[in-house]
Write the structure tokens for this entry.
Amino acid sequence: MSDEAISESNEARDLVGEYQFGFHDEDKSVIRFNNGLSEQIVRDISAIKNEPEWMTDIRVKAYHHFVEREMPKWGSPEILNNIDFEAITYFLRSTDATKDDWKDVPEDIQNTFDKVGLREAEGTWLGGITAQYDSEAVYHSIREDLESQGVIFLDMDSGLREHPELVKKYFGKVVPHSDNKFAALNTAVWSGGSFVYIPKGVHVEMPIQAYFRINAENMGQFERTLILADEGSSVHYIEGCTAPSYSSTALHSAVVELIAMDGAKIRYSTIQNWSNNVLNLVTKRAHAMKNSTVEWIDSNIGSGLTMKYPAILLKGEGSHAEVVSVAYAGKGQHQDTGAKVHHLAANTTSNIISKSISKDGGRSTYRGMLQVMPKAHNCRSKIVCDALMLDSDSRSDTYPTMEIGNSSADLEHEASVSKVSGDQLFYLMSRGFSEQEAMGLIVNGFFEPFTRELPADYAVEMNKLLNIKMEGSIG
């Protein structure tokens, strides 16, 4: 490694700290656009993908809305207002095509996905995977038995090419480009992501996964995901993500749209583990029809700033929303997360559990919205927000909003902020655990409502990740 590269690596480490997945590969991109954003860049992204004219028109319209829309004034405006959109690369193609055999993927990219454990998971307990590297998918697979049942699981670019009418019907219907500034940005420059369709009555027993890896410096990743679960079907989709540690800022701004038809069930699990130089500004929303269920199982461990509030619109009678969200805010991190549930129909139910830990001056924020519309009779909802602070330099904030338009609603809201109990530490240490080990057990127990919702392999990895994050938290 050159002296210059060593200096850059040390600078990044000083800025963002040690990070398990902070390595990066040499940039061997096939196509890389110059930094900066303009209408021409947006048109060029669409042209290089050979997209239909209607998608180009959507992109251009969204770009102009992005330019005209003000930056959010909440969350971390001091960070948002300093984003240099002209310093970001908006499109980078790493390989000539998406492959369905790992041996056809460049060796350095193969090694990266080996290091993050994706290939091992594919061979043991996943029904299909998409591996995205910078702007586009480099590898994709799905089990033959799922394909034979009519399950469609593609990267979003392939979904648009192979199923244009289905994409046109639903794209932007859950999250319109005008929703917020970063939804507009994503709609203008989106690339990659997942397109999933589960036919009527089909139950996908094994999870499917997409893994998003940023590699290049000054990179913007803008995947778009659309999941459609038809009547009486079910699917569990898992999203993982990591990025190198650089001294410069990377931007991740995704949009996820879920639609659960009558009686369907969608579970969407996220294991977010970005490096601290990544700004994670995403919009995730679902529509739940009659007697359907949508679950967001959401972890926020990495990034310098995350602003993410998975939302569910309960549009059909008897539909159910479940959000289990955890956040870890360490040094130099602000996790501004939460959930939004809108009860639009009668006899709908929802549960929200939010857990956060702040350490070494980190800041965690819960920002929630619960809305019950006047026609939504006999709704039930329970919200539990718990925050754990491990030192006096850290911060935790809660901003709950409840708009209740029907007096028949049955609602519960609990919130707590606490520090680690000396009695708990003493008890565990009296049983032979070191102080460090005892703290790790308390933290893992605090996050247990989240990890118990994960497949066993991921729950183990999540606990390992938390233990790494907790190293050095004593003394």
Observations:
- Residues 97 and 138 are 7 Å apart (CA to CA).
- The chain has two domains: 3-308, 424-475.
- Confidence is low (pLDDT under 50) at residues 1-17.
